[in-house]
Amino acid sequence: MRVLLVDDHPLFRQALAATVRQIAPEHSIEHYDTLGEARAALGAGEDALVLLDLKLPDSHGISGLLGLKAQAPAATVAIVSASDDHETVQTAQACGASGFISKAVSVEELAAAIETLLAGAEWFTETGPDHGRAPLTTAQARIVEGVHRGLMNKQIAYEMGISEATVKYHLTGIFRKMGVQTRAQLLTLARD
């Protein structure tokens, strides 16, 4: 399995790589400074583990996760971030992340998280009570990614091969799941 480390801080990437090598030396480890580099290297049907920072030079917030999941739905994407408040963790989970690791965790917890993710299970740093936000479906994640790119409903429908009415139906469900009422609020949540 390939492990893609996507973080613009070289020292943190090195620490992640050392932890992965210690747990699973047989895995291929790749380092990327930007989301664009990682997306270019990741195949659509590829079974890879991506450890993704939320703040990159070319991506800020959950939009990077949405783009990766839309491009490579088979990939396991876990967020590794210093922005580890409860809302951010829950939003990442709702948007399809398989895990969330706080950059403030101990080396032991980091190792446990990576080992769990490599085994195919989810790992979420405990940040407080679970408010039960339901995860987005693959179609909903693709629609949010389209909204983030500035596409109109008609354009999203064309790209996905569905009707504009279906896009509107999904947007209603997305608004409910994400606790927003408008497209602008959804964009703000995705960017934050």
From TrEMBL:
SMART domains: HTH_LUXR, REC
PANTHER family per the UniProt record, alphabetical: HTH-TYPE TRANSCRIPTIONAL REGULATOR YHJB-RELATED (PTHR45566)
Pfam families to which the protein is assigned, alphabetical: GerE, Response_reg
GO molecular function, one term: DNA binding
GO biological process terms, semicolon-separated: phosphorelay signal transduction system; regulation of DNA-templated transcription
Naturally occurring in which organism (per UniProt): Novosphingobium sediminicola
Residue ranges of every copy of the HTH luxR-type domain listed in the record: 129-192
Domain of life from the UniProt record: Bacteria
The name this protein goes by in its record: DNA-binding NarL/FixJ family response regulator
